[in-house]
What does this fold into?
Amino acid sequence: MPYKRHILIADDQPAILLVLEEMLEERFEVHAFADGRGLLDYVKAGGRADLVLTDVMMPEVDGFEVCRQLKADADTRDIPILFLSSLESDTDEAYGLSLGAEDFIHKPFSPPVVLARVRNHLALADASRQLQRRNEELEELVAERTREVVRRGQQLINAQDAIITALCTLAEVRDNETGNHILRTQAYVGVLARALQGHPDFAPFLDDEAIALITKSAALHDVGKVAIPDAVLLKPGRLDAEERLIIQSHCAYGRDAIAKAIAGATADNRSYLDYALEIAYSHHERWDGEGYPQGLRGTEIPLSARLMAVADVYDALISRRVYKPAFPHVKVVGIIAAERGRQFDPDMVDAFMRIADQFEQIALRHQDSGFSR
It folds into this structure.
């Protein structure tokens, strides 16, 4: 039988425990506790825990203390913790998140929302663990090949390719209509970066090694989509305001997963992962400051993310989606040109205009059925 995830719930209100148990027990192994002390005792005794849902205000040991103790222990710090609370203060929420909690759900809650958040955070935790495992495998591979006097640099490249393949597969499984989007956007980023190598503002940052790393990292730009609910990610139509906020959260989810990998990576692997983090978190920022998630403006946006923004938008426009047809290449070039100094770095748009035919050739070489000339 498939392994059922273990969900721990702590709340001093029996009615809430009953609602949560009935909602979750069909999909998960649920362990309910009337206070934080019982939950902590269960975990310290070796009880399984894949995710914790805890009230904040409880007698003796409150939810904040539950979070503090679990996050302080190396054996339990990676367990996702979601607060359930009637507290409305932004200060309380900020404090809870500062302790390391992954989310804050306000009471009265909607059961479908709680279920979606549980599934999302389990998926994100899976992605983080897989990324960490891949980095551990990378270190083992480097050590082994070094003893065999095999070129160390080639080993890193091969291992990095394995990480990219594994993580991008996770994203593609969730968003299966993108087809060759990853291959195309990597290639766009590479040719655009090379077109900027001779520019005095970019030359110091775009040597051949940097371009190779940024090109590889581009594949991870949407890895955070593994944490977005299917109902939003695959919705056939325009998103409403709340759904847009949910889809925008994929930037932070991607950043968090890659940040955890960086924390356990070797020094040789960090530059690659640093580019991946920049791209995942900032590729939806705009030159004019109207983007998300931080509203960065101009050169505040990392160079790698500015490259990715042009590549990602070009590919989105030439590709068919459930909510739009594929636009012809000529029309897409005009749209990007019109966004010079607004959505995109002006110098990058200028470079794009010079090599737009290369973008079209890449799109044709890796085209989906929805591509339009």
Q: What stands out?
A: The CA atoms of residues 54 and 72 lie 17 Å apart. Residues 111-147 form the longest helix (37 residues). The longest strand covers residues 6-10.
